[in-house]
Task: inverse folding
């Protein structure tokens, strides 16, 4: 049996990647060279993209909103917990800027900025979370108080793929 040419193998892998990409809502499987283990999350502040590492050469890329100027963070963290439709209590820094916010916004409320899912990190008051319909336009810009904001359909997809304890890296 003859060996398949490299171009045919590459085309087949591209097709399979494209089919798999369909399972991630707006996220897409991309070529991404990385030394991080599968399941690691890398976030690029500048590219406003979250990458879920699939293997040493591929990742799923999701568009995100990142921290606004003065609220950025960098370095490593870990996934601490995962929540479905969590309630939200505004951190003190948010409450200072928006004193009229209620102390708690119930999970599932259309006004809850955590959206459909929250993946909390082992950093103070930082989460990867969904968004409200009104805040969808913030995806792709620097808009948060440190959290990583995703489309609800994307955070639901990521939620199902990421494990508690997974490493998270935030970079420029």
Result:
């Amino acid at each position: 049996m003859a060996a398949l040419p490299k171009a045919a193998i590459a085309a087949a892998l591209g097709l399979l990647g494209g089919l798999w990409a369909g399972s991630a809502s707006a996220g897409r499987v991309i070529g991404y060279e990385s030394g991080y283990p599968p399941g690691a999350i890398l976030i690029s502040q500048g590219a406003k993209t979250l990458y879920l590492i699939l293997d040493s050469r591929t990742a799923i890329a999701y568009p995100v909103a990142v921290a606004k100027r003065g609220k950025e963070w960098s370095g490593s963290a870990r996934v601490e917990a995962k929540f479905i439709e969590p309630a939200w209590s505004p951190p003190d820094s948010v409450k200072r800027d928006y004193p009229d916010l209620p102390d708690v916004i119930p999970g599932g409320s259309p006004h809850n900025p955590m959206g459909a899912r929250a993946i909390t990190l082992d950093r103070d008051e930082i989460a990867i979370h969904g968004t409200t319909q009104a805040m969808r336009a913030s995806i792709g810009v620097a808009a948060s108080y440190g959290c990583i904001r995703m489309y609800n359909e994307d955070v639901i997809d990521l939620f199902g793929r990421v494990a508690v304890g997974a490493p998270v890296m935030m970079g420029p």
